[in-house]
Amino acid sequence: QVRLLESGGGAVQAGGSLRLSCEASGYTVSSYCMAWFRQTPGQKREGVAVIEGDGTLHYANSVKGRFIISKGNANNTLFLEMNSLKPEDTAMYYCAASRGLYCGTTDSWDSRGWYTYWGQGTQVTVSS
Is-contact 29 77, C-beta < 8 A? Predict the structure, then answer.
């Protein structure tokens, strides 16, 4: 059984940083495409960043230059380093895992259909 457990969320002031973690069990992080999504109440869940199985990275335009997605293969964990946080980054952040090496294309990686497994989410709140 695959389980994804997010942690690291919290409340920070604008300009601050947080590091999210997604610990996987029953799933090998290094072998597959994984991503971070976020969602605010009443809004569609949006893709934040993806790391393909070959290490290729893609980011949403809104977070480019501020967020970094990475894998910790030794501890089977996906990370999201978030810097220069803005109030508009406030959301529930979800870890997502696929069963393939790739998640779509450069333009479609943020489609939820590519991902089979989801975590329960961790809340990030950025105050101005």
Answer: yes
